Automatic annotation (TrEMBL):
Source species: Cardamine amara subsp. amara
Signal peptide segment: none
Name of the protein this chain belongs to: Phosphotransferase
Lineage: Eukaryota, Viridiplantae, Streptophyta, Embryophyta, Tracheophyta
Residue ranges occupied by any Hexokinase N-terminal domain in the UniProt entry: 41-236
Enzyme Commission number(s): 2.7.1.-
Length: 498
């Protein structure tokens, strides 16, 4: 071999070695980054773990806090609010009634016609609209004028069809925020949740505000009841099945109410009702316990929210927040590695990832996870390989599994408080042999998260059986109540008139 050839051969070897070195370097760097991502995922998964032992601790804490909230005003983070609802619709109601529901994301208006028998429930003209976002931090006047205007349009559309022509219309106002009631017709706003921020409304009588706006528009409509959405759902549940004693909402926000014995509401000594019981609005979104598996992402979400240090349970289990927890985990991974490409500015926007997108990604059954790719693209993250898309699905799973399982623990906590979990409650020591005596208990459930996110629902129902055991869970029936909070509130107004 000539000298020149040797030099060329040596140069080729050196070039090949440097290419190989670059490739190996790249591979090692990419492995390191992948390891970072896997590490973040593992740490998150561990922090969200909800083995049944931990769920049982949450169950006990919920039952204990319920007792404390009933014992004294401010005795617990659970407000355990009186609703003054001491009787629920039983099917004999008659007439035409209206409901206006201000929820977290939508407002609804509907009319029901009742014929005096359960089977004669005719729900007419349900209108559902997104709440315009500017209303959430406007003024009470703007908000209520808008609601009155929407009601006026609804009535105008009735034409001559309705039976209520010429008669004052009776309206139920389903208001999905915490209210301190003075009667079933009136109550003041305690605080806003779910991103609403009209501060001058706190402390104002909500029914009065709506009635004022209706009067200003000259509408002959009477706000006949102010009802929390959970209480509406309970009313519809009870109307169809009198074994319904608990109602839970899993929507933009989350909450539960249940039928309590008045003598157990110690903070209101001497409270008398003809039925001996009253519906209590727990406002469980504010429940807190050290047993809740809280991660650094939850802490950051809370700190940056408009109501920090508040509604801790709601922020782990409800629709407004699940998407944002997922987004925060993806963002951290993207900042700690380049597997999502350069960090997208869209991904840094709070609440840009909605829970319905989380559900769509989680339930994506295409082989290449095309839905995941599409949603990531909307977040400014394009062309990620399949293995990265799988990581995203896993994050959705971890967040939703934790939410569903904690939601189940919340329900089991109520069952424990009222002695329907097979253990005899937290005060008496009934033995397991008495399980045969267990009463059938129906839990009415409503809200977009529960209705539309199958995996959430499955995790919740599976965990409920795990906590209660096969035997007891046979007596606990979870029933979906579509539009229950609005329809049920109208039924409640009907029952007040009969
Ligand atoms: C509110 C509750 C409401 C729940 C579900 C929470 O943010 O505080 O009053 O029932 O959302 O809509």
């Amino acid at each position: 071999m000539g000298k020149v050839a040797v030099v060329f051969a040596a140069a080729a070897v050196v070039a090949a070695c440097s290419v190989a070195a670059v490739m190996v370097g790249r591979r090692m760097r990419s492995r390191r980054k992948w390891r970072t991502v896997v590490g973040i995922l593992k740490e998150f998964e561990d922090a969200c773990d909800t083995p049944v032992g931990r769920l049982r601790q949450v169950v006990d804490a919920m039952a204990v806090e319920m007792h404390a909230g009933l014992a004294s005003e401010g005795g617990s983070k659970l407000k355990m609010l009186l609703t003054f609802v001491d009787g629920l619709p039983n099917g004999t109601e008659k007439g035409t009634f209206y409901a206006l529901h201000l929820g977290g994301t939508y407002f609804r208006i509907l009319r029901v016609h009742l014929g005096g028998q359960r089977s004669y429930l005719d729900v007419q003209d349900v209108e559902r609209h997104p709440i315009p976002s500017h209303l959430m931090n406007s003024t009470s006047e703007v908000l209520f004028n808008f609601l009155a205007f929407s009601l006026e349009r609804f009535i105008e559309k009735e034409g001559n069809e309705s039976d209520s022509q010429g008669v004052r219309r009776e309206l139920a106002f389903t208001f999905s925020f915490p209210v301190k009631h003075t009667s079933i017709f009136s109550g003041v706003l305690i605080k806003w949740t779910k991103g609403f921020k009209i501060s001058e409304m706190v402390g104002k009588d909500i029914a009065e505000c709506l009635q004022g706006a209706l009067n200003r528009r000259g509408l002959d409509m009477h706000v006949a009841a102010l009802v929390n959405d959970t209480v509406g759902a309970l009313s519809l549940g009870y109307y169809h099945d009198p074994d319904t004693v608990i109602a839970v909402i899993f929507g933009t926000g989350s909450n539960a109410c249940y039928l309590e014995r008045t003598d157990a509401i110690i903070k209101c000594q001497g409270l008398l009702t003809t039925s001996g019981s009253m519906v209590v609005n727990m406002e469980w979104g504010n429940f807190w316990s050290s047993h809740l598996p809280r991660t650094s992402y939850d802490i950051e979400l809370d700190a940056e929210s408009s109501n920090s240090n508040d509604m801790g349970f709601e922020k782990m289990i409800s629709g407004l927040y699940l998407g944002d927890i997922v987004r925060r985990v993806i963002l951290r991974m993207s900042q700690g590695s380049d597997i999502f490409g350069p960090t997208s500015s869209v991904l840094s926007e709070p609440y840009v990832l909605r829970t319905n997108s989380v559900s769509a990604m989680h339930e994506d059954d295409t082989p290449d996870l095309e839905e995941v790719a599409r949603i990531l693209k909307d977040l400014g993250v394009s062309d990620v390989p399949l293995k990265v898309r799988k990581v995203v699905v896993k994050i959705c799973d971890v967040v939703t599994r934790r939410a569903g399982r904690l939601a189940a623990a919340g329900i089991a906590g109520i069952l424990k408080k009222i002695g329907r979990d097979g253990s005899g409650g937290i005060t008496s020591g009934r033995s397991r042999n008495e399980i045969q005596m267990q009463k059938r208990t129906v839990v009415a459930v409503e809200g977009g998260l529960y209705m539309n996110y199958n995996m959430f629902r499955e995790y919740m129902e599976e965990a409920l059986v795990e906590i209660l055991g096969e035997e007891v869970s046979q007596y606990v029936v979870v029933k979906a109540m579509e539009d229950g909070s609005s329809i049920g509130s109208a039924l409640l107004v009907a029952s007040l008139q009969s």
